[in-house]
Amino acid sequence: MSRAVSLYVGAVFTYDGELCEVVQLDGVRITVRSAGDKWRTVRLAEFLTGVSAPALADERIDAALGPALAGLSEAGRAELAERSDHVREALSGYRSGTAELARPGEPRPEFDPARPMADRYAAKAAELGIAPRTVERWAQAYRTFGEAGLLDARKIVSRRTSVDPRWEDACRQVIAERVRESTPTSSALLMRVEARLEEAHGPGVVPCPPRATAYRHLARLAKGTNALRGSAKARRSIAERPKGTYGRLRATRPGEFAILDTQSLDVYAMEPVTCRWVKAELTVAQDLFTRCILALRVTPVSTKAVDVAGLLYQTVTPTVAPLEWPEQACWPYHGIPQHLVFSEDEAAAGVRLAGVPVCPPETLVVDHGKVFVSAHVISVCARLGISIQPATPKKPTDKPTVERFFRTLREGLIQHLPAYKGPDIHSRGDRVEDAAFLYLHELEDVIREWVALIYHRTRHDGLAIPEMPGLALSPNEMYETGIAKAGLLRVPRSPDLVYDFLPVHFRSLQHYGVEVGGLRYNGPALDPYRNSDSPYGGIHTGKWPIRVNPDDVRYAYFQDPADNRWHRLVWEHAPGLGTPFSADAAQHARRLALRAGDRRPDAGQALAELLARWDTGMVSDRRERRMAVRLAAERQALPMPEDAAEPVTGLPTLVALAGGEEAVHEPIRPVEDVRGDDDTDEEIFDSPDDDFYADAFEVLP
User: Fold this and answer.
1) Cis peptide before 688, with omega less than 30 degrees from 0?
2) What is the pLDDT of residues 168-214, one digit of tens each?
3) Where does the record place Acidic residues bias (predicted)?
4) Rounded to the nearest 5°, which phi and psi values hold at 294?
5) Is 622 helix (H, G, I), strand (E, B) or coil?
6) Which of helix, strand or coil describes residue 387?
7) Over the Cα atoms of the chain, what is R_g?
8) Burial degree of 539 (CB within 10 A; 0-12, 13-18, 19+)
9) Are strands 552-559 and 544-549 parallel, antiparallel or unpaired?
């Protein structure tokens, strides 16, 4: 059957989903009439792009012949050309198919075009030693499909197998069932397949292939699934891939989508409370358009809701770059200050902005972890006008860019750090945790500087401009491109923005102040409202909302309902401590009091005694001393307006990764020996850096 149809007046076609009849045709336009006597005149070229001939009852869609012809070998092409010559000679008397290209001696008498077609078929069959019916079938295929119709189907169809399809189906079922189990051997998997077939069909009903054939077919069926080799983690990830076409978010400008995700770091860090190694988690916010890291936070063991709130605060707030950072590590804000939103105190002259683009996201893409969809995070996003778009559970393709960042971080930085443990247990060294000497906040500083100095300045294959697809761009360059094309989004903000990110505690106001977590706070702002009910309703009717920063419980924050101004409340023991004091340290003080035999320890008394020992240098053990050092150098998740930014120290590892660039360090100042430290020799030599941290409080302001 010919694949061509004739276009003429009176012909019937399907156009725009309707059956139409051609009523007029010229060289440029065509007029058709559809059902209901509707007439349409369109250009012929436009009509031909959307028209199709009505399908006949016996018509079927044939497979494309291009792949079959392209898959022939040189010998196959020569055989096809020779067969085509024979068919053309039988049909026309000439091997070329036309008298104008006749070869010497053509036409031969037995293939003279004047002879009947049946005689020519018989002569060609006698010449080739085949049946006349075969030559007739070749001629029919040539008229319909051309030379492609003469292909030997046995050479273009995939080789058939003698393996029972039920055996292959059982293999696929067993492979799918063992996705979350430990990796088996091929023999164990085949034994399970045989047991499955006997259970379903009976013994000996389904024949099993020979052993070598079974191993070969099993390897073919398990290809790309990690069922027989590879990591179990990758096998689970492969099984969770979408079965259809991958979809993706498409950002058109910076700040449109911010991707949030948490990943366990493949490196051990030092836990400041117990002085032992601990696993660390990294939570990041990444801009989808530029691939810039908007904010990051390193936490021990697991991420809390307040850490995510602090991450959001970093995302929408510019920070001051540490003086130790090289100039090239700065984000590209210079020259376009009109697109940035600052507070007046942050826009002071001479202040260099660090790597948090002031481009608050319109949409956050998060996973379904409780810390991301907690009431605290949802309320903060609602206040800022940010919509939350959850990613599909167990579908890493919803956040491919941030997943790729975690891999880049591991390969570009983490594997060069001490106490690197590798991506899996098979890659882990011997006693790598003993090399952990970076505290969690130091590890965060290293990652933050690496992102600013290296990652944001490295060209990414995934960043491209549609107008220039071959141009490789870095996140910084993509950021500049986005600003030039769309500009930055402006959102209203004020210095009081940070209070929205603090967790809320509803308490009653007493004559002595307010008590949160066993700590009493007081301040002049409470005077008009002591022993009175709040105007707030709901399940906390009559109680007042008090906000406390878990990283620094020395202060609580109260918003006056009369003028909506914020006021700081001071913890009664805060004057005895000049450094931030976290809620974890408060719990540690209570545990120390319980250990000393006090069944009902007073929180204030226990903390007062602990602070007194820390301030005088009389630390009772290494755990308390390490806690003191940690509190002295702790980076808060939510920096409050009263707190100054803490400088970040450049580490030698980053200098080496950056190609030998020298970092700027403050001059080293001699310090006096610490008095009152009663460490034993075993404690001193157990950790090589004890002497360094023992005098940490001597150099603190």
Assistant:
1) no
2) 899 999 998 888 888 888 999 999 999 999 888 888 888 899 999 99
3) 675-689
4) -80, -35
5) helix
6) strand
7) 38
8) exposed
9) antiparallel
* Lowest mean pLDDT segment, chosen from 88-102, 141-155, 615-629: 615-629
Residue with tokens 């009903």: 205
- The whole-number pLDDT of residue 159 equals 58
Residues pairing with 510 in the sheet: 513
Looking up tokens 């419980």 gives 553
Find where tokens 């409470």 sit. Answer: 526
DSSP string, 283-343: EEEEETTT--EEEEEEEESS--HHHHHHHHHHHHS--BPPTTS-GGGS-S-TT-GGG----
Phi, psi angle pair for 331, to nearest 5°:
-70, 150
Q: Which residues of 148-158 are buried (b: 16+ CB within 10 A; e: fewer)?
A: bbbbeeeebee
Label residue 606 by pLDDT band (50, 70, 90). Answer: low
DSSP annotation of 559 = E
For the chain, give percent helix, strand, coil, nearest 5.
Answer: 40, 15, 45
- What is the structure's pLDDT at 514? 92
Secondary element (H or E) of residue 477: helix 475-486
209 is written with which tokens? 């292939």
**Is residue 60 classed exposed, middle or buried when 0-12, 13-18 and 19+ CB atoms within 10 A define those classes?**
exposed
Q: Which of 612, 623, 603, 596 is nearest to 693 (CA)?
A: 623
Residue 674: φ, ψ to 5°:
-80, 130
Q: Where are the alpha helices (DSSP H) in 574-635?
A: 583-595, 603-616, 622-633
Whose tokens are 């070598």? That residue is 212
Residue pointed to by tokens 């931030």: 580
Whether the Cβ atoms of residue 502 and residue 350 lie closer than 8 Å to each other: no
DSSP string, 413-472: TGGGSTTB--SSGGG--SSGGGG---BHHHHHHHHHHHHHHTGGGS-BTT--BTTBTT--
Query: With 0-12 CB in 10 A as exposed, 13-18 as middle and 19+ as buried, what is 527?
Result: exposed
Q: What is the pLDDT of residues 57-85, one digit of tens each?
A: 344 545 556 666 777 778 888 888 888 88
Q: Per mean pLDDT, which of 78-82, 310-314, 667-671 is the most reliable? A: 78-82
Q: Are 524 and 568 in contact (CB under 8 A)?
A: no
Q: How many whole angstroms separate alpha carbon 364 and alpha carbon 352?
A: 27
Beta-carbon count within 10 A of 247 CB? 11
Q: Are 669 and 698 in contact (CB under 8 A)?
A: no
Crossing angle of helices 622-633 and 603-616, in 10° steps, is 90
Q: How far is CA 236 from CA 184, 220, 427, in A?
A: 14, 19, 19
